[in-house]
Fold this protein.
Amino acid sequence: MIFKYVGFDKSGQRVKARIEAIDLDEAKRKLKAKGIIYERINESGESIFKKFNFKRKHTLSAKHLAALSRNLAIYLRSGIPIVNVIRLAKLQYEKDPILVDFLTSLETSMDEGKSYYVALESQEIIELPPFYKQSIKVAEESGSLSEVLFEMARFVEEGDKVAGKVKQALIYPAFIVIISVLMVAFMLTTVVPKITGMFTQLKQELPSITKFVIALGDFLGAYWLVIAVAIMLMSIVFGYMVKTSSSFKFAYHKFLLRLPLFGKIIQTFELARFSYITSVLVRSGVTFVHAVKLASNILDNVAIREQFVSASKDLVEGKKFSSSLSKHGKDIDKSFVQAIALGEETSEIAMVMENLANLYFEENRSKIDLFLSLMEPLLILFVGAMIGFIVVAMLLPIFSMNLGAM
């Protein structure tokens, strides 16, 4: 919990700041230990979520996370200890209460002797990406925190650019999908029943395709609420299973890798992330064995992560990493393994990993551009086919009536 306080420090100057503690009593003890005499102290940002004991973490945009990482790295490169760096950052972000609470939590934890990674892991203010925290852990263990923070800023910005590009490109296709769903729903629940009434009065024998469309319209009209609730419940159960069941998450991630195009994009991004982090660590002085072991745990896709972890265990035992990947890496690109083997033979593994990262990032951009360029015409074709199917189903009985009259 974060507490706001107003008081006087050891020099008699009036101070107004925040401190993290489990409860009010602990906050008072911490202030006393710092020699601060407080006038008033109360919990910061109390909300209905806290009153009912709901834990809620804020999210930090990629842009803000990259800026914060870069600023911390600049301070660290100046030779300032990490605790003092956090204090300086608090002054810079004093107008942002969420970031101030976040940095206050880090400061309190590190004042108690905890590492920067442990402080990040234990804070309850901001939800950080797992790969980011793992990278910080690796950086602290290797003594290259400033370099990795700079690289993380660049990495996060690169990912944000790709995500932004995808979101921007998906706006029009999403609009088409929403409009098409509304049009089809309107036709099935409003237009089709009216035409059906006319067919019933004329006692016309309907084609099978028309009967199917009418039945579909009746079903949607009667059970649309049930369908909506079922979809919502399935989404909730799916999210819960992904978070709580490791076997279900593994099977889901394995399935994602089998998808056409999507699977290749996921695999390429994970290989780019692994290559990028490994190259940063090796260039920072970390041994290749240790860099591979730590970088393997940063990957998001569980199926690929387990393959890298298994290969890293063989590497610890003295085997070549490329040979281990060939054995365990069923979902890993063979050209990636060959490039690793080349790096091991030439002892230029850091350069090879950096080149691989750049290559895979560029390859993913090309794949995403291709996917987005194909999506728009395919969606238009699909929507046209659905509406055309319904129109044909309604027109067939009319054509049959005209032919019968002739």
Remarks:
- The CA atoms of residues 257 and 267 lie 7 Å apart.
